[in-house]
Fold this protein.
Amino acid sequence: MGVLNVTPDSFSDGGRWLDPGAAVAHGLQMAAEGADVVDVGGESTRPGAEPVPVDEELRRVLPVIEALAPSVRVSIDTRKAEVAEAAIAAGATLVNDVSASLAPVAAAAGPGVGWVAMHMQGDPRTMQESPTYRDVVAEVRDFLVERAASAGVAEVWIDPGIGFGKTMAHNLALLAHLDELVATGLPVVVGTSRKSFLGRLTGGAPADDRVEASVATAAWALAQGAAMVRVHDVAPTVAAARLLSRSA
Ligand code: HH2
């Protein structure tokens, strides 16, 4: 899954793809590099981000989805039902839902539309203030299994939500025990790409200097049985995934 943020403020690619033509070209480029899905988002969910009004989010994402959907599978990265509905009407066939609350929208759209349920503690404005868990792996797994079971959607993916209301220790525990999510039998998506915990682990590398760490953690996730990784750097991740599948 290639990330396409049509936003001014996303933490690593904010402002780069605000022009619809540039966004579409980048989406097609990621598909050519091997992305099976292009994930279009019009609202940053970085820690501290302010919500974006519906009209503005629609204005950002719809022209890009309309242009991409005929040639590549498009997911819509949103927390808003109105945006998910309009994106589906424009051609998106996967709802990437960091709020894990939009199953009814995907269900109403019928069997051709899937749903990614991501775990987040709190909301983006406050989620990193003091995330607390008794047992992060069990709590995230049980939450996602419960949401998936009640979704009424044929194609459901689960995602532990790396960095969403999680400390460094929580992120590392979820990655170390990804097999517990895989063991649910639901397909698992993982997004570590360029996230701040990788900056800390690599001695302070800025967001666009975290490619190796992103590819390494994506490869780890795939080796643990994740079915999809959400990444900014598609070409090196696809190369790593192909290498893994040949050595498996
Ligand atoms: N991470 C981000 C956004 N959407 N969706 C899923 N399913 N999993 C993730 O880990 C995930 C996600 C945050 O990354 P990014 O889109 O690069 O930044 P921003 O939220 O600042 O636009």
Notes: The chain has ten helices and eight strands. The CA atoms of residues 222 and 228 lie 7 Å apart. The longest helix spans residues 54-68.
